[in-house]
C-alpha cells in the first residue's frame, strides 16, 4: 500500500497532462474544450499549472486560478541628513550621512581646526596668520606682532606658521620656488610687486594680504591693482 500511495501524485500529473494534450480537462464542474483563440492557466494543487487552450481566464473557478505572486515591498528609503564641515583655508562642505551633533566643535563652520586628521599646510597657515592681522597699522621696519611693513607681514606670517623665510622683499623675491603666473598661484605664495620693493601673501581668488604704507592698515587687495614682478612659493 505504501508503494501505491507514493505513485498516486505522479499518476494524477500524467492524467492531467494527457487531458490537456487531448484537448479538454474537467475543473470542478467546468468542462472546457480546446480552442485556438484563448489560453488560460489553471492551477491543480499538488500537480501543477497548465495552459488550457480556448479558455478565458475569467472562466476558471477561483480555487483553480494560478496563485498570484506578491512582489516583496522595498524598504522605505530614508535620506541621510547632511552636516556642514569647515576645512580651514579651503571651504565649507556638506557631508551626507552626518548630523550636526556628530561634528566636533573645531570642525564646525567658523570653528577652525583640521578635517579628519588633515592639517593645514604651512602656506595655508601663513595666509590665516596674515588675515588675522587685517586692520593692524603699517610701520616701516616692523615685523609684528602689532605693526608691520610689507615684507615684515610676510616674514611674520610664515615664521608663526613654523617656517623662516628672508626678511626683506628683495630677499623674498630671490628665495623659494618661482611660480610662472598668477593663474598658477596658490594661497600662501609670496607676491612681489614694483620691481621687488613691495611684498604680500596671496589669499586666492585674485586677492592678496599686505601692509602697504603709513596711514593704511593691513588689508586684502586685488592683485590686478598692483604691478606684479614675481611669485615665489615657500
From TrEMBL:
- Going by the entry's taxonomy, the superkingdom of the source organism is recorded as Bacteria
- InterPro entries found in the cross-reference section: NLP_P60_dom, Papain-like_cys_pep_sf, PG_Endopeptidase_C40
Q: List keywords of the entry alphabetically.
A: Hydrolase, Protease, Signal, Thiol protease
Signal: present as a keyword of the record?
A: yes
Sequence ranges assigned to domain NlpC/P60 in this UniProt record: 120-234
- State the signal peptide span: 1-39
Keyword Cell membrane appears in the UniProt entry: no
Similarity field: Belongs to the peptidase C40 family.
Q: Which PANTHER family match?
A: NLP_P60 DOMAIN-CONTAINING PROTEIN-RELATED, PEPTIDOGLYCAN DL-ENDOPEPTIDASE CWLO
Q: What is this protein called?
A: C40 family peptidase
